[in-house]
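Standup notes
- DV: blocked on the single-chain target, sequence here:
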Amino acid sequence: MQKSTDKTATIGMICLDAPPVNALSGDKGIPQAIAAAVQEFDADPAIKAIAIYAAGRFYSAGADIAEFRGNPATDAAPLRSLFEALDASQTPVVLAMHGVAFGGGLEVALAAHYRIAEAKTKLGLPEVSLGLLPGGGGTQRLPRLIAMDKAVEMIITGRPVSAAQALENGLVDALFDGDARAAVLDFATKIINENKPVRRSRDQEIAAFDPAIFDTTATKLAKTAHRNPGPMKALDCLREAAQGPFERSLTFEHRAFDALMEHPQTKGICHAFLGERTAVKIPGLEGQKTSRSMDSVAIIGAGTMGVGIALACMKAGLQTLLLDLKDEALERARANVERQLAGQVKKGRLSQDRADAQLALLTLSTSFADMGDADVIIEAVFEDLGVKESVFRQIDAIAKPGALLASNTSTLDVNLIAAFTNRPQDVVGLHFFSPANIMRLLEIIRADDTSADTLLASAEFARKIGKVGVVVGVCDGFVGNRIFEEYLRQAYLLLEEGATPEDIDGAMEQWGWAMGALKVMDLAGQDIGWAIRKRRKVEQPDRPYSTFPDQICELGWYGQKTGRGYYNYPEGVRGGATNPDVLPMLQAHSIALGLIRRTVTAEEVVERTLLAMINEGAKILEEGIAYRPVDIDVIYLNGYGFGRDRGGPMFQADLMGLKTVLARLEELSKGREGWALKPAAILYRMQEQGLSFADLNAGKTVQTDMQEELV
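- DV (later): unblocked, structure below
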């Protein structure tokens, strides 16, 4: 923070300069410094106005939620003290915004006495997207500056408004072009010349409005309030603002904000937000960048996955070559691309001009020679090692030096694939999730010889095409599918013991999954899981599977693509209807196993599947397949439909407590097929050393027995 005076020492200038985003970090003393400068200038009789502006690309992205550590009142204290200093100032305070003014940054502006904004500025209070609410007086000051219905919309949705809208609504007093410092200085001079008084937003009267807006909005929010408590609590604060007085309603807001900080759903959402920013950082390579170009992509395989990857690349503005040896496959691919782009246009998500521009980036080819100049080459062919060997040997012969060579394999050993080339250092796994143009997750699989620059290039490519790229190691199924296998194992065992598909999926969806396990398998295709189980039966005979899913497949019920699976899919029934033949089959299967079917509760479904995920995740960490627990959480939040408000499986383990996790795993490991839930060794060591998964995310390590002996 910089402080100076200007205009014959009558204007106190305060510059917020905390790159890269001008976050109002209490740890760095930013709000404290601004408050002290305001108080110092206010105490100087020569100062007639105080002007606040910011350096850098934009004004402020708000508070740093990484500093919210569990004591809401303490965590919020620095910003609240700044608002008090602004309210107490007897000298008019003018604040200039440019670029973006979000969250706490906008709340500081609301507490200033006059506000100006650069014409392209976006202004917003997005706290509800984190399960929170504007806790620095935002719910109280905003409706005193703009109409209540506008304030409700802005706070409840979290959507930003343009500077022009802000001027029209009364949120800002003037717009400017050019330099923020010069603009705020001119406006402050005008305030002095016109002898403008201090004008506190807290003292403004709320304009008349229809109070029915509160009940109408509450009805809309009721459907999702159990997933995200922020919007409903924010609405309560706005309702309280209408009743006043300001001090009482401000106290109400502070208490609501503090309560949300302790809410499990809010904690989960904030963990997801911060986790995505952590998981994309590659340990040991922080701050480093690749020098490779990422402007052109060649995709081999024009099936569903290849088309999805192509669409993602085209959307990012990359020259995209889609290659397949069959002309008819390319024809289908082009029709698919055109259909999907047309669908986006029809829904209003894409302009026709933009759709045409994206389509112009696509080239179709049947010749491997055409991919020789591509910066990135992605193989997306059939999941067979022999097929991939043939493809990669051709890629190796044609690709230019330094090209990023990637396999979209979901289970195969990337080390073996890399060995098919003479440049294993350039080979990486890029595991897209279907539909690849929509799903945000991209597992980046590092093979033994993958170079650091290749990892950096892969991470940059993921960022370019709008994906959350998470680096993982090589193992069967990598991180996501390996854990999903244990999750499915428990779902299948519960089917055998008494649950129905509706019991399983209903419990999981009610808890927070976007789709239950069995519906997912129907969507993906039951035959895919069947092929994996056949391979597992040979490779892992000591790890038995439920054979009931095989019975489904033997009948040709592969799910949505055949119209039947665990559910029936008649035309027009998108989510599936009960398959009446499944329950009799389950009953017969249970009898054949010597099991007496019992009632399986929703709580048991959630607990057993979740504990299986946590336990396998712990093993993955122990083996070094994932760098951090949060990487596992981010994979599940972005690739598998794990409820964002639930934070991820490893986050849930911390909420449950390691002691509880171990006790339940130990108890379940003594039951039927209990071998699958035998606790991972790392869990015991973590308990002995008093560590949580959050501690591991923070950089603490679990000591091995050998390390303990050395200590």
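- Follow-up: The first strand starts at residue 2 and ends at 6.
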